[in-house]
Amino acid sequence: MRKKWLFTAVMIAIAAIAVSSAVWSYKGINEKMNLENERQNTMSLAEVDQEGDTSEEKPIENVQNDKSSGEEEQDQGEQEVGAEESNPELPVLKLKSERVEIKIGDSFDQLSQVETITDNKDTQEMLYRTIWIHGIYDIYVPGEYPIQYVVTDSDGNQSLPQILTLVVKE
Predict the structure, then answer these.
(1) Strand 162-169 vs strand 99-103: parallel, antiparallel, or unpaired?
(2) In whole angstroms, what is the distance from residue 94 CA to residue 73 CA?
(3) Fewest CB atoms less than 10 Å from the CB: which of 3, 109, 125, 126?
(4) With the C-alpha atoms ordered 130, 100, 34, 30, is the resulting torsion angle positive or negative?
(5) Do 132 and 147 touch, CB atoms closer than 8 A?
(6) For 6-55, what is each residue's pLDDT tens digit?
(7) What are phi and psi of 115, to 5 degrees?
């Protein structure tokens, strides 16, 4: 009889540990979904190991990053602003900067590069869940990597693409 009580006590302790672990994990998920959290971490688009092999690659779509002069870049920026103003139903995605530099092997959080996202109908939290990030980069290989950001609202409207250039330096 004593063995049954001991076994039951051990099983209750294991169940309590499992439940507390699940609750702790759930709190962590809620913290990550809080858009005002500065410590928010996300998964990388392409996980890369030390040898440089990618476990997942996604193509870059509709990247228009080849500008021959600064004048063309300014004209493109003016057109994008004009398009957003002429169609207020489009969501607007704004990056913190157009260029980010990191050293080889440093971590890079793609979603932390988004400064603001707004829409005439949807909340920021909802929009944050629908950000599409397209681009391949390797934090262990020096170079410049274009990464495209687009957000889609609940009506299917897409923001104008925003390009971030990730520079990996030695």
Answers:
(1) parallel
(2) 16
(3) 3
(4) positive
(5) no
(6) 889 989 999 888 887 777 766 666 555 554 444 444 433 443 444 444 44
(7) -85, -55
Range 99-104, long-range pairs (CB < 8 A, 24+ positions): 99/164, 99/165, 99/167, 100/164, 100/165, 100/166, 100/167, 101/167, 101/169, 102/139, 102/166, 102/167, 102/168, 102/169, 103/168, 103/169, 103/170, 104/139, 104/140, 104/141, 104/142, 104/168, 104/169, 104/170
Check: CB of residue 52 under 8 Å from CB of residue 141.
Answer: yes
Tokens 């990247």: give the residue.
63
